[in-house]
Amino acid sequence: MNICVFLSAADLPDRYTVPAREFAELLGRGGHTLVWGGSESGLMKVVADGVQEAGGKLVGVSVDFLAAKARTNADEMVVARDLAERKALLLAKSDAIVIMVGGTGTLDEATEILELKKHGKHTKPVVLLNTAGFYDGLREQFQRMEDEGFLPLPLTELVFFAEDGVGALAYLEESAGLR
């Protein structure tokens, strides 16, 4: 399965990097391909290293103004013109999406993917990996959106919240009929 992971390129503390590395190793050992922003820095590097070292493949989608930070030994690397094209390529190259910890770029990617799913533009499973409770506030906001009628479909059909990588991968593999 080609699994797109949206996440930070920042250097982060162990409470985020250790679970990210564990999830990456699960992906690689499972024979999955990581589809990601292609960066050779921060949490993006941690996940790419973990997948590759555990036997998985890497498909990167960088963007022209970040191409100098792209991983040089990915199995495939595409350089998009801009962030909009990058997001479209990441979605097109993936079978499922996992949103890990990140900043405004990750939040932008997450909301666009969820908006496209809400409107039926894709049916790929989407997981928010809630490492160290990072997305507790977002989960609460989504629940309020559902409760107050802002979502045209149940939240459970839009996104799955996983507390760890094992739960995230299990959900994705079940959604793909691999379990």
Short description:
The protein has 179 residues and is of the alpha/beta class. Helix content is 45%, strand content 18%. Strand 1 (2-6), helix 1 (14-29) and strand 2 (33-36) form a beta-alpha-beta unit.
Describe this structure as you would to a colleague:
The protein is an alpha/beta fold. The chain contains 7 helices and 7 strands, in the order βαβαββαβαβααβα. The protein has helices at 14-29, 42-53, 83-92, 104-118, 136-147, 155-158, 165-175, and strands spanning 2-6, 33-36, 57-63, 76-80, 96-99, 126-129, 160-162. Strands 4-3-2-1-5-6-7 form a 7-stranded parallel beta sheet, with helices on both faces. Strand 1, helix 1 and strand 2 form a beta-alpha-beta unit. Helix 1 packs parallel to helix 2 (42-53). The relative contact order is 0.16. The mean pLDDT is 95.
Please outline the helices and strands.
Layout: E1 2-6, H1 14-29, E2 33-36, H2 42-53, E3 57-63, E4 76-80, H3 83-92, E5 96-99, H4 104-118, E6 126-129, H5 136-147, H6 155-158, E7 160-162, H7 165-175
Parallel strand pairs: 1-2, 1-5, 2-3, 3-4, 5-6, 6-7
